[in-house]
Amino acid sequence: MNHKRTIAAAALAMALTTVVSAPVHAAGKEKCYGIAAAGQNDCGNLAGTHSCAGQSTMDKDPGEWKLVAKGSCESMGGMLKDEAKKRYEEKKRNG
Fold first, then answer.
1. Where does the pLDDT of residue 22 fall: very low under 50, low under 70, confident under 90, or very high at 90 and above?
2. What residue stretch is flagged as signal peptide (predicted)?
3. Which is nearest to 81 in space by CA: 36, 26, 31, 45?
4. Do 56 and 64 meet the contact criterion of CB atoms below 8 Å apart?
């Protein structure tokens, strides 16, 4: 019984460490849309056609993003999420 408690405690500690450290890793960063090279995006896109990193198929797709230092996105030629969403919605409406 003691062995099961040890395993459960270790699993809980691991889960809590992951949850607590994830926001710390992203601190001082922001999602920057439209700057990722093909296959270099950080996660899912605005279109919802994929949900994983490295699955973008074209350079500088406005629906794909990379995590960059906060405040540096626009100077890199990218856009923040609100602007990217506006452009994506306009593109959908206009075909």
1. very low
2. 1-26
3. 31
4. yes
SS3 65: strand
- The answer to whether 80 and 74 are in contact (CB under 8 A) is yes
Residue 4 lies in a domain: no
Domain containing residue 43:
28-94
Residue 11 domain-assigned (yes or no): no
Could you tell me if 68 and 78 are in contact, meaning their C-beta atoms sit under 8 angstroms apart? Answer: yes
| % of the chain at pLDDT higher than 90 | 62
Closest Cα to residue 36, out of 52, 59, 9, 15?
A: 59
Q: How many domains does the chain have?
A: 1
pLDDT in tens, 60-87: 999 999 999 999 999 999 999 999 999 8
Identify whether 23 is part of a domain. Answer: no
